[in-house]
Structures
1.
Amino acid sequence: MERSIRLLLAYDGSNYCGWQRQRQGEPTIQGILEEGLQIICGHPLTVHGAGRTDAGVHALAMVAHFHTQVAHPMAAFCKGLNSLLPPDIRILSAEEAGPEFHSRFSALAKIYRYDFFTGEIMLPSKRLYTGHLPGIFDPVPVREALRQLAGTHDFSSFERSGSRDLSCTSGRGAIRTLYEASCEPLAEIPQGWSLRLKGDGFLRQMVRIIAGTVIEIGLGKRPPDSISQILAIRDRKAAGQTAPACGLFLEQVIYPPAA
């Protein structure tokens, strides 16, 4: 009988080319997980993740699932798998999932966090987990910009160029809903800040482009009321820089109570 196993995992993405398996054989989170699970299960399998984090991006609570017919106890997919994984990837829990569960398509929302530092000199211990965007930073206009971004919009201007086939008219295109967006100081890092975005889905590099754009606003490089114009233009060139990958964390994936 086929089983669906749901994994909750965390990883440091510094040494990986993102989540998705690469044809060229570069190290990826999906690829490493599949290698370990194939040893445990004894057959080829595919691990499906709730999202596709980019190279250098981290996760505190990624959800993934796979199918197998082996009758191993859950400990094999948690403690056993951890014994095969490198120390920068850890399975936090494993459980049986219903046949209808899909880590990506069953999700209601995701929460991403972007940590950044605006001081002149970055501490070496923070460099792999905090974007460095130096300057005199004011959070007040950033919060105003985030209020304008909240809600349902076409986020084409905040999507990596060339990441979608724009000739395809099926699906929802670049329409996404941001439920919450905030900017708060990082208590452990003076001149450190954290953006948190909760949405029903995110386009390729959308969080990093939003971060880069609103940080420019906080540094006085563009006005907060430019957000409405950027949204209306629907062109990546209208938005700001793409913030460095190292500051981005997938913090939570939210599912219906029964999922």
2.
Amino acid sequence: MYNVYRVLGGDTLDDIAKRFGTSVIDLQSINNLTDDVLRAGEELIVPETSKKYFEYYTVKKGDSIYGIAKRYNINPELLASLNGLNYTDYIYPEQVIMIPKANYSYYVTKAGDTLDSVAGILNVSRDKLLNENNIIYLLEGQLLVKEKR
């Protein structure tokens, strides 16, 4: 899930990342930024990291994506993707990652996805998908959520 943020004079990527609970790397990746230069009035797409959908876990020495995913009964590739990582990436002690809550289904969009195809994957109507997700861009890497009932 994403929000649109209009850059204010003096904003830095670091400030925006902290404000929205994301990382500078994620902001650069989502917005195809090659540097840290921002212009007032520019619009950035920022991931929504609502506590409604996630809990947060602080990485401990010896942790791995696979180990954490197994502990929480989550697909390791989904866990990595939700956190802007690759499955094989090294994670660091004290790094904070999002753990998806069990009462939701999650889908990270891919190139070529449509509302209908995503609705089919999540087994939900198109209208319900639109209602449960504030803004849908269908950009590659957007997180869409469906509440399990």
3.
Amino acid sequence: MKLNLAQYRGKKICVALSGGRDSMALLHCLMLGAGQYKISVCAVNCDHKLRACSAEDSAFVKDFCNQAGVPIVCFEENCAALSKNRGVSVETAARDWRRECYLKAASMFGADAVATAHHMNDNAETVLFNLARGAALSGLTGICDGEITAQNKFEDGGSVKVIRPLIGCTREEIDEYVRVNGVPFVEDETNADDCYTRNYIRLNVLPRLEEAVPSATKSIFRFSRLAAEDEKYFAEEISRKKLIEPALCGVYVNFCEQKPLFMRAAVSALKYLNPLVKDYTAEQIERLYNLQFCGNGKKFYFLDFVAFKEDGKISVCLANCLNLLSDGQSDFNEYVLSQKNGFGGQYAAVCDVSALSATLEKAVKETVLSAEDIKILKFDCDKIPAGATIRFMRKGDRFQKFGGGCKNLGDYFTDKKIPLRLRGLVPLIALGSEIYAVCGVEISDKIKITDKTQRVGCILCADYARFK
């Protein structure tokens, strides 16, 4: 078993240590090369509480590391209960929690990377499994180095690289290394249970394939590396052609009739919104591609996403972004008196004209918006009726445009070319069904400034026209 440890020279590596032969072989190899390559080694152990012997396995790795002088941190979690709390499968809950542990451990140790013990046979299992499920080429890239980035549900922030030093080694090579070097390990009893799909592939499919086609595992590995290179090329093309652009609510996928390129861009857009997404189907991505050729405003709900056809692009956002249409509201006076500066996750602030510069400077400092992203609407403070609220769009809303002319708010949004995906996100100043200001867009003619105005107020909000 030969590893290219020179590429990790001078790094601090945290080994994901289960106690099985693969992870123990990885730790042993890194420890041997630590002096020569100035590698600092530490470890993290995750007890998912899914097996009767899991606590004993954790105790084993802890004792081994303590005797070897390897710093280790151990985490435990009832992942079966966690899956119910999060409403996901046990496998997904365990994987997400394990990633959280990796982030925490890397932060605690100041590690440059977390090393997992995935090897060439694991890679072959992954490729065959994805192929059997109907994956596209992107699903056949196998197991590669990657990065874990903290999501909102993670307790700690930051990100950490994940490396796979054993990915070029076969199971047989690892077994031989363990035997020759007398590396201690524990056996996971579930590895022999072929009721699990991956175990079935490992125990039944790959051995038969190797009998029929010698070195099949190595050939699959070479294919997966070529597929990864192809995917890297497509990613560079997506970037060069700027097919994906972040939006105020979601992400844009610009039109592209080159189907392979667009479909990869669409998948990248989904992962931009949710890095852990994996349950999308080829049919769903095909529908996103075909959405280019539908009428504007046509939408498509799938998984936790919704996609809209707009001018020159497909806009994709998380479906819960559209759930802001509600009866919730805030008293307008709270914004004037207490300087509240947000509603429903959207930036909205009200100030006296004399405080405009300070309010704008604060907005730029405390939000992701630039000064150019913020639209300032000036209005006559004394024309806002008592009882006015800030809320989102409701059925029956009416708006008297600046300069005259009354319109249904939905029709007004259409005239202003405000996309459907944004309409439920625009804060409104209203009393009943009468809209006095569409924040970030326009004030009503009813609150305009005249030569009789005594108090001028300012509404600061995201300029929604800039994010169409």
4.
Amino acid sequence: MQKEQIEIKGEFITMDKLLKFSGVAATGGQAFMMVEDGIIKLNGKAVTEKRKKVFVGDVVNIDNQIELIIISE
């Protein structure tokens, strides 16, 4: 599994923006489809909200292939 640390400014980032910012999704529409397809997990739980808030310290798993660890800048 590919693991990557993602630095964010501020307290949180929304899931759709995180997926685009990290390069996992090319567009917001693609990010939304990934959530709808059920392949995104936040701290081990399936994500159903496209604009779910992701905070520093959270771990996002994409289809058990990519793990994004959120850190502060």
